[in-house]
């Protein structure tokens, strides 16, 4: 009996101990859970709710441009800027920030539209805006027959003039709010980057904690140390308001651009956009479920754009610009120059294709009606003209290649008369001459006979003329194209024009074609053509970029070479050396022997030039064309191609002066410009 009592007395104790242990463990667990919830709860909750945001790219300065002597042509000027990034804020929150920022900075309001003002008023006055929606419209919305967008449009329509009677302070806030909402989520948007004062920059920087999404940073804008020299070729960059060009939006978005990025929109800035743009700084934003940024993680450091070293010598470019301006103004004082308004010059290395200078000047009227000179260097490859006898070197070589003539072939310079057409002749009777003398004295008739033979035509004075070779036009044009005439030169700039090709196949136009009075050519094409003759028959691709350089580091002016643009031979003209020598001899006589059409202007030139002059009868098709009705006036275009020295040439030149004069007046602007340009080149070289 005692034994049983003993056993029973231990059971309650063990049970109590078990209950106590369980109670103690639960207490510890509860304490631990409480500790975790109180101390780490927010962190764990944030970790559960966090999600990866998009990668944000921050812009970097564009690459610079230098001339061939390493002088800066296009630079970046840093300037203070205030930006905003929408990190998931509501419209109300952005409006509150805009109002706070408006008290710290001056913001122009001239770009505000009525819609911008209405947007601001609706967000700022939600109750008053809501009162403009009728009960019936709210019922339609509840029945899902009207959308949020429909209701918002109604609020916009019903906002009255009195609602938009905003104070100056409210207008500034509305202008800032407009900038906030014009960007994209997680994309930096410029709020103000013009005339940001030191005081504004400092006070905004001090208050960034109370301005969510706002930041102070450094922006840039393009600067031009040589001012307007070559500006039309250097190109333009879109501003912060323009962003990506609308017509190229998909192209740029597919390459990782943001819609408000500034990009090259013309010429070199556009052509080399991928080089100049650089690599943006990339940051990955980590957001919570509400879309708010809770952490930013660097992904990659940015790198400014690569620099371009151009083939252009800016001293030479400026000198040629001045020469053209002076000679154009001088020409305008002479009779018959009412329509004269422009001139073009291209200097090219005939062996590498490097463009040493490309100058164009055009007389226009400014806003006050005063005549002024503006840069038109683009016209050297985007406009084409009848150029006249400068193409005769290509005609002679085409005659050789087709077997129409051979070295030493002689023709009489008597005029050609086709039935029912005016007599086609040279400027004077030049006697019997071979191809060298024909080039020296610029015989039209010699070229006519060459064309007749290419066309396999039987000629009799004042009789109808028929071409047996119906492919004569194509034969001549294809041969001319091998020199660069009537085709793209391949220059590394957009919008190059090939020229106009006459449509008629009447035999008389074949004769006009071989003396440069039917198809049209650009100054750049003429420079490529004469370079092909100068260098022994190689058509070189012209280019204005010499090198691409990596961004400079430290105090260096230029970084290391990333790419060197090598000379490119587009084709050879398949001409015998003897043929080229004879054409080169004719070109040399043009400038160095009495009787040559350019001798009077180049007599005594120490650099021994060779070349060919050109005068073309043409019809005016310039900016005043509409004044003359259906029949435009006839004009004379002047041109000149040259290279120097005549042996071992180092520079090739083309000069075009469209609509140089009317009637019998001749101002010789092509020769005056050409002589001064070559003088300037060799003087600068010697200096």
Automatic annotation (TrEMBL):
What EC numbers are recorded for this enzyme? 3.4.16.4
Q: Which GO terms describe its biological process?
A: cell wall organization; peptidoglycan biosynthetic process; regulation of cell shape
Q: Which reaction does it catalyse?
A: Preferential cleavage: (Ac)2-L-Lys-D-Ala-|-D-Ala. Also transpeptidation of peptidyl-alanyl moieties that are N-acyl substituents of D-alanine
Q: Which SUPFAM superfamilies match?
A: beta-lactamase/transpeptidase-like, Penicillin binding protein dimerisation domain
Please give the pathway this protein is involved in.
Answer: Cell wall biogenesis; peptidoglycan biosynthesis
Q: Which family does it belong to?
A: Belongs to the transpeptidase family.
Name of protein: serine-type D-Ala-D-Ala carboxypeptidase
At the highest ranks, the source species' classification is: Bacteria, Bacillati, Bacillota, Bacilli, Bacillales
């Amino acid at each position: 009996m005692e034994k049983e009592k003993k056993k029973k007395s231990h059971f309650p104790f063990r049970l109590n101990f078990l209950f106590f242990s369980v109670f103690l463990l639960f207490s510890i667990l509860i304490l631990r859970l409480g500790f975790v919830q109180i101390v780490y709860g927010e962190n764990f909750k944030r970790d559960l709710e966090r999600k990866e945001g998009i990668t944000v790219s921050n812009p970097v300065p564009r690459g610079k441009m230098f001339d061939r002597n390493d002088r800066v042509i296009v630079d970046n000027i840093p300037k203070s800027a205030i930006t905003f990034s929408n990190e998931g804020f509501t419209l109300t929150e952005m409006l509150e920030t805009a109002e706070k920022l408006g008290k710290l900075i001056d913001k122009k309001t001239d770009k505000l539209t009525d819609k911008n003002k209405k947007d601001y008023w609706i967000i700022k006055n939600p109750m008053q805006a809501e009162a403009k929606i009728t009960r019936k419209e709210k019922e339609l919305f509840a029945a899902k027959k009207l959308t949020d967008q429909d209701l918002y449009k109604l609020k916009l329509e019903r906002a009255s003039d009195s609602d938009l009677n905003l104070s100056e302070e409210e207008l500034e806030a509305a202008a800032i709010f407009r900038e906030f909402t014009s960007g994209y989520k997680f994309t930096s948007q410029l709020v103000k980057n013009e005339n940001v004062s030191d005081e504004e920059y400092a006070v905004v920087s001090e208050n960034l904690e109370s301005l969510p999404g706002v930041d102070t940073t450094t922006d840039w804008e393009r600067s031009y140390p040589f001012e307007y020299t070559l500006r039309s070729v250097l190109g333009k960059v879109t501003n912060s308001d323009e962003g990506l060009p609308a017509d190229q939006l998909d192209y740029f978005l597919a390459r990782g651009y943001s819609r408000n990025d500034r990009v090259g929109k013309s010429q070199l800035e556009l052509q080399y956009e991928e080089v100049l743009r650089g690599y943006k700084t990339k940051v990955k934003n980590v957001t919570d479920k509400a879309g708010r940024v809770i952490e930013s993680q660097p992904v990659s450091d940015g790198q400014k754009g690569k620099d371009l070293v151009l083939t252009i010598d800016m001293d030479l470019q400026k000198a040629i610009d001045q020469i053209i301006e002076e000679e154009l103004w001088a020409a305008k004082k002479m009779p018959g120059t009412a329509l004269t308004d422009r001139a073009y010059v291209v200097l090219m290395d005939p062996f590498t294709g490097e463009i040493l200078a490309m100058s164009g000047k055009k007389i226009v009227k400014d806003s006050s009606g005063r005549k002024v000179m503006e840069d038109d260097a683009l016209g050297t490859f985007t406009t084409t003209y009848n150029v006249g006898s400068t193409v005769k070197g290509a005609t002679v070589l085409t005659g050789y290649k087709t077997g129409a003539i051979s070295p030493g072939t002689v023709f009489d310079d008597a005029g050609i008369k086709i039935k029912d057409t005016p007599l086609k002749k040279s400027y004077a009777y030049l006697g019997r001459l071979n191809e060298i003398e024909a080039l020296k004295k610029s015989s039209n008739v010699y070229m006519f006979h060459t064309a007749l033979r290419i066309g396999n035509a039987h000629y009799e004075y004042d009789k109808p003329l028929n071409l047996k070779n119906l492919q004569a036009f194509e034969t001549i044009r294809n041969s001319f194209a091998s020199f660069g005439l009537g085709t793209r030169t391949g220059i590394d700039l957009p919008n190059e024009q090939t020229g106009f090709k006459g449509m008629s196949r009447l035999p008389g136009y074949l004769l006009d074609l071989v003396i440069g009075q039917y198809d049209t050519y650009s100054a750049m094409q003429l420079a490529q053509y004469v370079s092909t003759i100068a260098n022994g028959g190689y058509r070189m691709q012209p280019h204005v970029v010499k090198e691409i350089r990596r961004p400079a580091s430290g105090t260096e002016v230029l970084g290391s070479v990333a790419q060197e643009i090598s000379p490119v031979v587009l084709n050879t003209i398949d001409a015998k050396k003897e043929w080229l020598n004879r054409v080169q001899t004719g070109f040399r006589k043009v400038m160095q022997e009495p009787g040559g059409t350019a001798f009077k202007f180049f007599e005594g030139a120490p650099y021994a030039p060779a070349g060919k002059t050109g005068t073309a009868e043409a019809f005016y098709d310039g900016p005043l064309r509409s004044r003359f009705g259906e029949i435009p006036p006839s004009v004379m275009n002047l041109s000149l191609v040259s290279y120097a020295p005549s042996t071992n040439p180092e520079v090739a030149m083309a000069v075009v002066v469209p609509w140089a004069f009317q009637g019998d007046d001749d101002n010789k602007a092509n020769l005056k410009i050409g002589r001064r340009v070559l003088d300037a080149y060799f003087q600068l070289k010697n200096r």
